[in-house]
Amino acid sequence: MKTPLSFQYCRFTLFLACALTVGAASISAADLAQAVVRQKVNVVTVAPSLSAAARPATTGSVVQNQNVVRTGNESRAELEFTDLTLARMGANSIFSFDSQARALEFTQGALLFSKPANSGRVEVRSGAITAAITGSTGFISNQPAAIMKTVKGKIASKETTTVLGMLEGTIKGDAAWNTPNGARHTFHFSLGPGDMLVAQANRQPVVVQFDLPRFIKSTPLINAFNRPILNQPQLFQAIANYQTDERRGFIRPTRVTLVTQPSQLGWVSGSIANSSFDASVDQLGGSSSSSSSSSGGGFVPVGSTGVIRGQLVWTTSADLDLHLTLPDEQHVFYANRSVTFNNGRATAALDHDNLGGVIDAPPDKRVENIAVNGTPSNGSYTFFVNSFNPSSPNASDPFTLRIGSGTHTQTLSGSLTGGQNSAPLVLVFPPHS
């Protein structure tokens, strides 16, 4: 007896749907089946498990499911998965992943994770924290021996402090903690850009707001690696939204701070409501270096000369920033330090940055430098200065902006208050004789 055509069609449709479901699940698991080491600095090792013997990892090494990656002192590594998810490890960090559970498992140190929005759900696990992302960028640190600051002063603690922060996108999850009598509780959280969870095993977790633009600007988890992250446009939008909320008063000045060393994980500050502690977390070692060369035209010998050059000089501890807009509208500044343009024939880079706390040239000069090299496209190169975070909210910080190409130079001097931009200084290339 022949099977009715309608039944055959339904059976085929059901088979196809099952096949697609199984295929999608296989592809999804395969996305996290292995990762490639895209960059490594100093000591990076891979082992089959935590207790197994490790072997040195090199750029291009393949890390398999359940392998354990470690970094040493002053070391870092970037891993890229098939779906382009990135995991960037700081110094003294331990990281692994579970492809079947689609989970990034972080044991110790500092880690930045960045996941494209169209590549499925991934869990992030560290200590008592389990959370899920779809398309997001964030960081997590796990410090086995935190220094806790109470109302009576700093004390050493044997507890592990886990800090989870979001740079763009969202993350939702749970953090487990115990009361003094041993009762176990679960803290449900949802974090967006600029939100950070601080968790310990025997203390109720807290969520704080941290200085998102300052963290992105200062963390080597972003700027000590060769490649921009895939979610860079989303980072720029998150910074813009944060600054808009700050101007509107939705983000208030802080009373209590959670601080990490600027040359380590990044600078973070935020108010901790109804809590008597904050944490100091020292993580990622190393920072970006810059080249120096002497030059004339009134430029300070900090940073490179370039075919086109812009240099900002100031003498206070304020955090002033140099910006450049290229003829093709690309923007070079602390969150987008290097770009390629003119069909790959030219580069523009912020090759020396300064948060205001370092003197680059005696007796008191702070310097930021942007250099354009290669064969620049013809057009207008617009430089300007922004006062990111001056030493006092009401301060007015003097600056000098100098730009030039060859023997053609221009200079702008003035002063800025917090959040203010300078007038633009425009160089037309090639300069007219």
A few lines on this structure:
This protein has helices spanning 5-31, 212-218, 220-223, 232-247, and strands spanning 34-41, 44-47, 55-56, 62-64, 68-71, 76-81, 86-89, 94-98, 103-114, 122-126, 129-133, 137-143, 147-150, 153-156, 161-168, 171-178, 184-191, 195-200, 203-209, 278-280, 308-314, 319-325, 331-332, 338-341, 346-352, 366-374, 379-389, 397-405, 408-416, 425-429. The protein is mainly β. It folds into 2 domains: 35-280, Jelly Rolls, CATH 2.60.120; 308-429, Sandwich (Jelly Rolls), CATH 2.60.120.
Which descriptors would you attach to this protein?
single chain, 433 residues, mainly beta, Jelly Rolls, 2 domains, 6-stranded antiparallel sheet, 12% helix, disordered N terminus
Topology record:
Blueprint: H1 5-31, E1 34-41, E2 44-47, E3 55-56, E4 62-64, E5 68-71, E6 76-81, E7 86-89, E8 94-98, E9 103-114, E10 122-126, E11 129-133, E12 137-143, E13 147-150, E14 153-156, E15 161-168, E16 171-178, E17 184-191, E18 195-200, E19 203-209, H2 212-218, H3 220-223, H4 232-247, E20 278-280, E21 308-314, E22 319-325, E23 331-332, E24 338-341, E25 346-352, E26 366-374, E27 379-389, E28 397-405, E29 408-416, E30 425-429
Parallel strand pairs: 9-10
Antiparallel strand pairs: 1-4, 1-6, 2-3, 2-5, 5-8, 6-7, 7-9, 8-9, 9-12, 10-11, 11-16, 12-15, 13-14, 13-20, 15-18, 16-17, 18-19, 21-26, 21-28, 22-23, 22-27, 24-25, 25-26, 27-30, 28-29
Walk me through what this model shows:
With 433 residues, the protein is mainly beta. The chain folds into 2 domains: 246 residues, Sandwich (Jelly Rolls); 122 residues, Jelly Rolls. The protein has 4 helices and 30 strands. It has a 17-stranded mixed beta sheet that branches. Strands 24-25-26-21-28-29 form a 6-stranded antiparallel beta sheet, with no helix packed on it. The N and C termini lie far apart (93 Å). The N terminus is likely disordered.
